[in-house]
Write a structure and sequence with these properties.
With about 220 residues, this protein is α/β, with parallel strands linked by helices. It has 2 domains: about 1-120, Response regulator (Rossmann fold); about 125-215, Winged helix-like DNA-binding domain superfamily/Winged helix DNA-binding domain (Arc Repressor Mutant, subunit A), CATH 1.10.10. Helix content is about 40%, strand content about 20%. The chain is built from 8 helices and 12 strands. It has helices at about 10-20, 35-40, 60-70, 85-90, 105-120, 150-165, 170-180, 190-200; strands spanning about 1-5, 25-30, 45-50, 75-80, 95-100, 125-130, 130-135, 140-145, 145, 170, 205-210, 215. The longest helix has 17 residues, at about 105-120. It starts with a strand and ends with a strand. About 30% of the residues are buried.
Amino acid sequence: MQLLLVEDDHLLAKGLQQALAKQGHTVNAVATGEAALHVVSTEPPDIVILDLGLPDMDGISVLKRLRKKQADLPVLILTARNEMDDKIHGLDSGADDYLAKPFDMSELFARLRVLERRLTTHKTSVITVGDVSLDIQKKTVNFHAAEIELSRREYMLLKSLMENAGRVQTRDTLEARLYSWGEEVASNALEVHIHHLRKKFGADFIKTMRGVGYKVNLS
């Protein structure tokens, strides 16, 4: 999943990014509410992890504005405010979950898994294009009824293409789904992943739209 972490504590944000990346997530981090609102408008993540104590505006204000932009975007509040009234206020303002600092990392992982499962209930769990089937909930891929092993980034790339079957995905869009901001990306990394997927699913499964990007055609 692509996560947006809104946290102004640099050390905490860095630690969370590293821990969440090890869980297979792409994590982008911002330190202000305005930056978070901009990201959601331009490159919506799958889930937002939102601190309430931000330097430019209160996190609840950010949450309310996020809800106007993306009503269904899952938001997990992560904050030092642990009074019951704060929790109720956060949930009533539109948060999907609330985790008080300090917290156990395994609990954060578990809560994110719950939100991810909830996301799949709003989508078709299995996406099928031709002979390729991708199960979002189980994170498995089958080709000609046989399960195919994919790396994390191969799976994320295939998922993005199949969710948008018939539509061209630009190089920038695909790289944003695969890599966190600031992460060193080799110039041919995307092409390498595309090449590996074509070896597994056939040379014609992913089409190159020269100068634009890539797509898979609906079958």
